[in-house]
Request: fold
Amino acid sequence: MTQRSLLITGCSSGIGLDAARGLRARGWQVFAACKKPRDCARLEAEGFVSPRIDYTDTASIEAGLAQVMEVTGGTLDALFNNGAHAIPGAVEDLPTDALRANFEANFFGWHELTRRVIPVMRAQGHGRIVQNSSVLGFVTLPWRASYVSTKFALEGLTDTLRIEMADTPIHVILIEPGPITSRIRENSIPHFVKWIDWRASPRAAQYESRLLKRLYDDSGPDKFELPAQAVTDKLIHALESPRPRPRYYVTTPTYIMGAARRLLPTRWLDRLIRKAG
Reply:
């Protein structure tokens, strides 16, 4: 049996790294892409082919995929779009340029890579495109508008693509994790410092009492937080099942909020979210 090939982005840590190791252990030919050359070098030392793919850099997307195609002879069985970052802050304090930058990294780059992969999958007659979204792709939380907006957009794009691809042998799948052990909070700090002038905000006191503590204090795992392996388990099913589901929930909060969004009136859901946030 020919070894199946899989390109995973955002493999420097967390979900991407666990997925790369887990799928390689199952016999997949894993291409573990990272944004930074030093992370690529670290994964190459582990024996991975690690192309550099930065979602904000078209040249790196093109070159990274070309590297994969060279190794596989022009085929790719599956793509797992993963890497993303957050810009914490209130909507009224979020510069539009910050939102544009977040969409480049969390949405437009995913779209560009996906569009480049689809012709490959059409030509070979099969393929799976898995998008790592979030519980914040269908409900919101305060202080997370930038990240939430990119994930809501991703869900809309992916749902449309799934319907459009129903007449092809390409499966399009969403994974929607809740709290997962990762470095996303730590990695969001430089973006917060760059873009959010919280001291000048009318919400400065709220920043001090709530958001800054969450960003800078090591308070341990979130409630219901699961290790990255929980996402890898769902990814395995999405990639290997003869009939993958359109979407996979991961963690208890995702199931709770999925049910709440369907069942509760908007005001009740808003009240629940304010308490959770």
Notes: The first strand starts at residue 5 and ends at 8.
